[in-house]
Amino acid sequence: MNILIIIFSLFSLFVGTKQEIKHGDIVAAREIPYQVYLRINTIYSCGGTILDELHILTSASCVHKNDIYPLDLSEIEVLVGTNSTNSKNDFMDIYRVHKINIHNDFVPSNKTTKSFLADICILTLSRYITFSEFVKPIKLPNDYDIINTNHILTVGSFGPVDYERFVPSYRIRVSQVVINNIECLGFWYKYTLVTPDIMDERLCARPLPGHSACSADNGNGLIDNDTIVAVHVFSSRCGVNAPNVYVEIHYYLQWIRYILGSLLH
């Protein structure tokens, strides 16, 4: 009986409440309802964001094998309505992918240079998502929205949060502050052998103290309130307080609206 009470208490901790942890904030099931995670060949691989009943926004790198050619549709599963990567609940559903829409300007990275040019992708699902309080679409920014330096944004994560690349079974929210691209490029040039190609359509953000620099999985959305402003495409190994690199959404709004079927949105 005591064992059951302990198990129930732990379940409530991770699902029903928000708790402070070392690398971010654990979120309850109703929080971040627009976030999904992608399983590639049954293994958790990337994050994504719900745009509408049929479309998921993620990184193009997430659906490429060795950054060369797209995955087969049968290899990808999209999980919605859950804040855990290793347990099921009444709100979770799994969707198959009908089509992979990769931006035509996408340039895969190589071993020494991370291009991130148009590293953006929209997955068209094989059936409609059922919305609820646990599953909702994100808002898109306006055409001319600009994210200023020092602005605080958040990103949801299921990904690694420490030196050992431990993958948490629960979702966390990580707060990040926007930094200028010159500072961002300077860090990567000085401390790593991999130099990200940081241009105007890329955004850099550094985790706040106590939040992990590698918590943001590739493909996850960088969020300003309930609006997605960027897609995560690159971060350091865990434990290094390095800026994360994102692709800004407003540069690709026309393409996104085209895929969603509404140029007049």
From TrEMBL:
InterPro entries the UniProt entry points to: Peptidase_S1, Peptidase_S1_PA, Peptidase_S1_PA_chymotrypsin, Trypsin_dom
One Pfam family in the UniProt entry: Trypsin
A Gene Ontology biological process term: proteolysis
UniProt domain Peptidase S1: residue ranges: 21-261
Keywords: Disulfide bond, Hydrolase, Protease, Serine protease, Signal
Claim: Disulfide bond is one of the keywords in the record: yes
Entry annotated with the keyword Transferase: no
SMART domains named in the record: Tryp_SPc
Record Gene3D superfamilies: Trypsin-like serine proteases
Record GO terms (molecular function): serine-type endopeptidase activity
Signal peptide from the UniProt entry: 1-19
PANTHER family per record: PEPTIDASE S1 DOMAIN-CONTAINING PROTEIN, POLYSERASE-RELATED
Name of the protein described by the UniProt record: Peptidase S1 domain-containing protein
Organism: Aphidius gifuensis
